[in-house]
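Closing statement on the S-adenosylmethionine sub-project.
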Amino acid sequence: MRIRLISVASRMPGWVEQGYHEYAKRMPADLPLDLVEVPLATRGKNADIARLMRREGEQMLAATQPGDRIVTLEVTGRSWSTEDLAAHLEAWRLEARNVNLMVGGPEGLAAEVAARSEQRWSLSALTLPHPLVRILLAEQLYRAWTILNRHPYHK
Ligand SMILES: C[S@@+](CC[C@H](N)C(=O)[O-])C[C@H]1O[C@@H](n2cnc3c(N)ncnc32)[C@H](O)[C@@H]1O
């Protein structure tokens, strides 16, 4: 099983890439975490935001494969403890479908992406910026994996 973090984003500063890769590279070979970045279209003064979001949503969905599980990251989704995440990770692994974690752009997720969601996951009641969402996701996935594998990191 693979996990793909599919995110609408502009180029991230070095510290974000470093932070994300620090955790992503710790994932085991049989549970890799891959990052797919959908470029954020320029929001000019008269930009048709609805159209841009729809196009970005189509690009996000195009990065998934038929049969994949789609999990959307939403402030208003369900709050999971790290132990809950570990239980989901185990269930996902048993199901043997690839998992796509969808992170929206500045206006949130396109309706087309939200409509395909099988699980809506909230990291916090706070709206978090992209850099923190990305790093937090990678760290929590690694932490959940260490729980399942009784690795001392999670203590
Ligand atoms: C800067 S936020 C967009 C905020 C936008 N106003 C909204 O209501 O979704 C960009 C993306 O980060 C993710 N995100 C931000 N905070 C989050 C949280 N607390 N839990 C889950 N995902 C979050 C969501 O996928 C969101 O679409």
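Residues 73-75, 103-104, 106-109, 122-124, 126-130, 133 surround S-adenosylmethionine (CB under 6 Å). With this model delivered, the sub-project is considered complete and its resources will be redirected to Aim 3.
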